[in-house]
Specification:
By secondary structure, this protein is mainly alpha-helical. 49% of the residues lie in helices and 0% in strands. The protein has two domains: 259 residues, Ferritin, core subunit, four-helix bundle (Ferritin, Up-down Bundle); 150 residues, Ferritin. The protein contains eleven helices and no strands. Helix 1 packs antiparallel against helix 2, helix 3 runs antiparallel to helix 7 and helix 8 packs antiparallel against helix 9. The chain starts with 10 loop residues before the first helix and ends in a 5-residue tail after the last helix. 46% of the residues are buried.
């Protein structure tokens, strides 16, 4: 099948495509985290010692892929920043309805399972590898997302794989340089970006010219999306290996269940979707989910505040990135606990899970004292809620102090 052509005739269209690429990376990252956090952890969860060791290894692999997706998110933000735009950290709410993304791209929150692994392999497939998506990830009737030649307004375009999208973005950079010259295309301030000094993410570099833009895009493609099939460390190959190991366990024990029965695409508020979604409203799970979503929202807020800072506030980039990473570690324990809790009296046998809900569109707050006051206040509110949820005998009893300590360290320039 011939690939659709991704057309970039204006900077505005390139900004639009980079915003979509960032939203896709962000959404895929959430899918990977949801799967990793659904995995059981100990023999008390019904696993043998051998199974615990393998499941822990699978979790580690999936989380390593998620870390690289964070790097892709940061690289896409740098690519946007270098052409004078701001990073885009908003994304569509789950479940993502048809039309938001290409008809061949289904992104849903689902617990770890054989079909989900097949779906991840499909998402990360190299260009040129023909695969069918997994059972249960039903694609809508095909539709076209096209931008007609000569249009000023940007719009959604189609792509077969995520690697295809990034190749289109690279061609867009090359075309704009040809039309306008490198000095005008790369007009953004490099100091407004995030680099290795602020975040230790694999392959993260600042983007300042066409060569570094190519390097950033090639890093994304080679690590996973569109990676060559022979690349043993690609996301594609890592998921293939997990699938092979999982199938070996199932051959020995067909009753093997490495994950909790978490809801598919759970919601934290009443939804008017026609899909039969699970509303998490069991009292304990509802409150734990509220805390988890609040932590996630503040983590995204820290990322938003990290890019594009004015000259007098650039020393705050590293503390903000550190805040985001520390919140992720706290969130992991809470999200794993959430996956062990019943979701709703209306859905017996189904457990809760993160919904990754955000408070509307995430926009930048003004820099300075007010920014710090708002974040510290939010951390205090979450620490109070955590103390209410997790008593001294609870495995997460240290969460309130962790959040309080993070707030104490939050001293910007």
């Amino acid at each position: 099948m011939a690939e659709p052509t991704i057309r970039v005739e204006t900077r505005e269209e390139l900004i639009y495509l980079l915003a979509e690429a960032t939203a896709v990376e962000h959404s895929i990252l959430c899918c990977y985290l949801y799967a990793a956090w659904s995995l059981k952890r100990t023999e008390e969860d019904g696993l043998t010692l051998e199974q615990v060791e393998s499941v822990q290894q699978w979790r580690t692999v999936i989380l390593s892929v998620a870390v690289e997706e964070m790097g892709h998110l940061a690289l896409a933000a740098n690519l946007a920043s270098t052409i004078g735009a701001g990073p885009h950290f908003s994304r569509p709410e789950f479940p993502i309805p048809p039309g938001v993304l290409p008809s061949g791209l289904i992104l849903e929150l689902s617990g770890f399972s054989p079909p989900l692994l097949d779906h991840f392999i499909y998402l990360e497939r190299p260009e040129g590898v023909e695969l069918e998506d997994a059972t249960g990830f039903d694609h809508p009737v095909a539709y076209d997302r096209t931008v007609k030649k000569g249009r000023l307004m940007p719009g959604a375009q189609d792509y077969e794989t995520i690697g295809h999208l990034y190749r289109g973005i690279l061609h867009g950079f090359e075309g704009l340089v040809h039309m306008h010259g490198a000095d005008d295309v790369f007009c953004g301030d490099p100091e407004a970006q995030i680099g290795p000094a602020e975040a230790s993410l694999p392959g993260l570099i600042p983007v300042t010219d066409l060569a570094s833009a190519k390097a950033a895009i090639n890093t994304i493609i080679e690590q996973g999306e569109g990676a060559p099939s022979h690349s043993e460390d690609s996301h594609y190959q890592r998921f293939v290996r997990i699938k092979d190991e999982y199938e070996a366990f199932l051959a020995d024990d067909p009753t093997f269940e490495p994950a909790f029965p978490v809801a598919r695409n759970p919601v934290s508020r009443q939804s008017w979707s026609t899909e039969p979604l699970v509303l998490v409203n069991e009292p304990e799970a509802e409150l734990v989910l509220d805390l988890a979503n609040s932590l996630y929202s503040l983590m995204v807020r820290a990322l938003v505040q990290s890019w594009g800072r004015d000259v007098g506030y650039r020393d705050d980039k590293a503390p903000l990135m550190t805040l985001a990473i520390e919140l992720m570690f706290v969130l992991e324990g809470i999200a794993c606990h959430l996956a062990s809790l019943p979701a709703s009296p209306d859905h017996p046998g189904v457990n809760a899970g993160m919904t990754f809900s955000l408070p509307g569109d995430i926009q930048r707050h003004p820099e300075g004292r007010s920014e710090q006051v708002l974040m510290k206040e939010r951390l205090e509110e979450m620490a109070t809620q955590a103390a209410h949820l997790f008593d001294l005998d609870h495995p997460l009893a240290k969460v309130p102090k962790k959040l309080t300590d993070i707030g104490k360290k939050l001293n910007f320039a």
